[in-house]
Amino acid sequence: MNFIEELSTNPGITRALPTAVVETLQMVSISGIFTLAIGLPLGIFLYTSASGGLRPMPVTNRIVSDIVVNITRSIPFAILMVALIPLARVITGSSIGPIAACVALTIGTVPFFARLVETALRDVSSGKIDAAMVMGSTRMQIVRKVLVPEALPGLVAALTTTMVTLVGYSAMAGITGGGGLGRLAYNYGFQRFDTTVMIVTIVIMVILVQAIQWIGDAAARRVDHRSAATAGSKKARRHEPATTIGV
């Protein structure tokens, strides 16, 4: 039996794979939405409450940064997911399945995304912030109209990196009862030594990561007004010699 016939007759491919793909997409999309909703404000808070920020709160910043963010990031995801099983049962009513796994996936990636958001905001020129303050903008207006728009390419890149990380985490979650491609690879590829299922699973996860990265890169380029301005200036420079010759 060749590889093509194996794909059409293997029950791990024909029956279990479609469900596993849907469960993985479910985990990544739901966790990604909650990570964005919680991690973005948390990252903005880490930036604005730091020393020299818009609203310095050194004590609160140290508590949130060192205790909440750093400690959560230092725990390996496999251990974190097992530790959060009781919380997942309280929130979702179940300790297994893709929905229950979203609790650990969200808690595991929110601190990571918040740090990336904080780093992206640090790249915003302080001159633009000072100019907004001189014009009488409030802190909230500076955040909404200066910080976030100026850091938008970096924020999109941070979200892309987080989504790719979620794909990897979702595979680990599958081994501990979360379902998805991770559980399929473990059940068929590891326990049954089914090489075909293992190869197909890896290929699908690579395609998924490549798709997320391609979409994220395209979105980052689209919102980057600096590259648009550079492209515009290059076009202008290309037209300059023609104008000079005409004169």
UniProtKB/TrEMBL annotation:
Any matching Pfam family: BPD_transp_1
Cross-referenced CDD domains: TM_PBP2
Gene Ontology terms describing biological process: D-methionine transmembrane transport
ABC transmembrane type-1 domain boundaries: 21-216
Membrane topology, from the record: Multi-pass membrane protein
Region (Disordered): 227-247
Residues annotated as transmembrane: 27-47, 67-88, 94-114, 151-175, 195-216
Places the protein is found: Cell membrane
GO cellular component: plasma membrane
Protease listed as a keyword: no
Signal peptide: none
Organism domain of life: Bacteria
Annotated keywords: Cell membrane, Membrane, Transmembrane, Transmembrane helix, Transport
Family (UniProt): Belongs to the binding-protein-dependent transport system permease family. CysTW subfamily.
Matches recorded under NCBIfam families: PRK10782.1 (NF008049)
Record protein name field: D-methionine transport system permease protein
Record organism: Crystallibacter crystallopoietes
